[in-house]
What we know:
Elements: H1 20-41, H2 48-69, H3 76-99, H4 103-114, H5 117-120, H6 133-142, H7 146-164, H8 173-190, H9 210-221, H10 242-259, H11 274-282, H12 290-303, H13 307-316, H14 324-331
Helix pairs in contact: 1-3, 2-3, 2-4, 3-6, 4-7, 6-8, 7-8, 7-13, 10-12, 12-13, 12-14
Amino acid sequence: xxxxxxPRNNPRSLIPHPAPNILRQALQTTLLNPLETALLSAxxxxxxxxxxxxxxxxxxxxxTAPLLSSPSAPTPSQVxxxxxxxxxxxxxxxxxxxxxxxxxxxxxxxxxxxxxxxLVAPPLxxxxxxxxxxxxxxxxxxxxxxxxxxxxxxxxxxxKVAFESxxxxxxxQGQIESLNAALMDTCNLLFRSRAFNAAxxxxxxxxxxxxxxxxxxxxxxxxxxxxxLTSLFSLxxxxxxxxxxxxxxxxxxxxxxxxxxxxVAVRHAGPITTKSLAQLGREGGVxxxxxxxxxxxxxxxxxxxxxxxxxxGAATMPxxxxxxxxxxxxxxxxx
Length: 335
């Protein structure tokens, strides 16, 4: 009696697989739901949600390795399970950010979310949803350190690259709009001095209601000196980056003065804005445009190891690349 050979690459391909949704539901009801219930009700665990997210990150890593090493594409069942897990952990991360936004918790969240683009990019090309824009906003406004902000920027860059590497793959329009909103609003905060602007294409204004934006703008304009709300999260004003930004500019001033003594008649006191740079140039200080200043800061951050923000700027603001020559001229003390 003749036998049918089993394909070498997939020795179980002739065995019927359960329907993807049935398998996903079975995993959820027999393993994951009981596990969550046990953790949440355990009297010895005071904060079970970070423990739960750590478990899901380890589980995802365990599943990812064989998928990457397999010569076969992920099965529909595997895709369904990973989609369900990604959607579930997106809700879990938002819960953590609104209930326990500590440095350690945010680090766990970024570690988990950073493991997903590997599944989205080729060769696996699994259409997992990106982190909701709200997740990005919550991390930005509770970021306790420069490291956290840089890791968030790296995460957004990874998702952007993963999506673009699958440009020919059909993707849910809602996922594209979700990622674009997070990218645009983060650019508006850090690079464009357009914080909370919902009029730009794709931007959601960080989901801040317009009346709140108006009230905040009124408050900041009444400060002494007045401060425009739209620029208070930029490279010059962001609490995690501002000190480094002015340090980068002062190095340019020092370099220009060293090469041509007396060429820097006035030094910038900070924080740097578009208007202050123009005024500085007129008064005999370093001549540098706003685009060149942002390029300078991003390159300086990259040189000191804060590559996440620099990579994000390069990935989302390609127009800033043209400012490198002007930065070199400023360092040389040449107008």
